[in-house]
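Quick one: sequence plus pyridoxal-5'-phosphate SMILES, need structure tokens.
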Amino acid sequence: MDHFLYRDGELWAEDVRVADIAAKVGTPFYAYSTATLLRHFQLFDEALNWADHLVCFAVKSLSNQAVLTTLARAGAGMDVVSGGEYARAIAAGVPGDKIVFSGVGKTRDEMRAALTGGIRQFNVESEPELLVLSDVATQLGVIAPIAIRVNPDVDAKTHAKIATGKSENKFGIPIARARDVYAMAADLPGLNPLAIDVHIGSQLTDLEPFRLAYQKVAELTEQLRADGLDIQRLDLGGGLGIPYERSNSAPPLPIEYGQMIQETVGHLGCEIEIEPGRLIAGNSGILVTDTIYVKSGEGRDFLIVDAAMNDLIRPAMYEAHHDIIPVKEPVAGAEQTAYDIVGPICETGDTFAKARNMPPIKAGELVAFRSAGAYGAVMASEYNSRPLIPEVLVDGDQFAVIRARPTYEDMISRDTIPSWLQDT
Ligand SMILES: *Cc1c(COP(=O)(O)O)cnc(C)c1O
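Reply:
Sure thing.
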């Protein structure tokens, strides 16, 4: 559930009219709901109440400072995958001991920054990374707390580009080799292997792949303890899916996910960490766009909107579905027209939806893409020299621009003309 609902014939974001935001900031824009962000965080927090736990928001899904600050104040930890995300988490007031550092390609500079600024644990993904991290920590005279990310070789049954837990994926260490790699880590001077990490993919709509993976992690925990390691913490990753298509999907709820975690690993007495991104941010955001033209084609009508694939790349990149609704509430029983909904960019891939049934839309009418909070703004680019679109945060009856739309001048001035091209 979220806080984008029709009331008095139009779409609201909490207690703000979406049309009022559009009038103030122009289109297109992203709008996020504070109440939805907090509610989703709390659902996970409550689902793990049976254990010591930390919910670490996956910063990569939505990294605006105002969103991170909102979640940090509610007590969230953060899962970061780059030095930039680490800096964002720190700037949002997240203490270092609530920040987990994931990712297959951490650099020495990133390791040094996190070891100096404070870190809960590194999720290490390879043997070479173990050696480098131990070296960096030793040089700094500290011990790096680590988990090793294991690859459990389970099929997450999700889109190929976001499946990460099969043996052919680039992520983690094959679980069959994990004992040897933990033994190696335990022998290195700069490391404290205290946790196990697993993350099998994103947008999972079934608990079974998680269950298989967590059962394997439970077995591994017992083996490692028998080997003499003090495994105190399990990081079970993110990946729980959301209902992008509300009419026909109902993925498992956080409470069911939390119960399954208790069933599979609860007996081990470990502290539990999870790293949800999409389920916290996804339905907390909408993308609002204006209809520029309605164009009749052969056998189909096109809605040409002012948002494009550079603003929201998920349909082009993952064949993703977003529910698209008019901001003006359609009258009950309105006839439906099948539209191809497209942006202005010169690529056929700039298509948001094909033959989508909608009530009739006229040029100048606003439409909203639902479930656009996660992997939306963070994946945007300025392709076609379209300035990054603004982000707006709503809280009750107030809203604020949390990232402004750059002007053309701002955009151009980021480039530098070398001396030999400057007029004298
Ligand atoms: C992307 C990612 C997440 C978040 O995944 P969601 O599907 O957004 O919940 C968590 N952990 C790691 C290591 C990731 O790469």
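The chain has two domains: 4-31+282-413, 103-274. The pocket of pyridoxal-5'-phosphate is lined by residues 58, 60-61, 79, 102, 199, 202, 237-239, 275-279, 374 (CB under 6 Å).
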